[in-house]
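Exam revision sheet. Question 4 asks you to relate a sequence to its structure. Input first:
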Amino acid sequence: MKVFELSGVARTEFGKKAAKNLRKEELVPCNLYGLGINKAFTVKAADIQKLIVTPVVYAVKLNIDGAEQMAVIKELQFHPIKDNVLHIDFLAVDEKKPVVVAIPIQLEGHAEGVKAGGKLSLQMRKFNVKGIYTNIPETMVVDVTTLGLGKKILVGDLHFDNLELTNPQNAVVVQVKATRASAQAAQA
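Answer key, structure tokens:
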């Protein structure tokens, strides 16, 4: 997992009015919790753009008034119309306690069923992965090379070292669906 460095300043005022005033100053209210930590702080809106507008999942090295803590983003809240960030919750992490993080899925290979005229259909965009944050990769690679026409890969079929998938075991990750052309070719 890549590391993103972010600096923040502790908050002293709380509530709707205080949060609204912070947003006018282009600051984003944030919370850091977990491992016995509970801190409220703010970060500059410009500083978090590379962190949130990316498919990559980062471990965040927070520096709040000089105190450093590793964390991951637990929740982001966006404005429903303007699409700017309203609030971020960070979860403090260490190398002893596992965390659950949503990691994007990346397909690899050219499926046999696609070569036979089928259509590859990705049913799941992210896995919920439980593990030590240093063992969690940026993307979860799923090889579809041996996937035949009408076949599918379930969450239970996949195994990754030092990681546990917390999605339902019978959930479909990817499948090759038959098309009209492939059905006609099979009948001929």
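Marking note for examiners. The chain has two domains: 2-94, 100-187.
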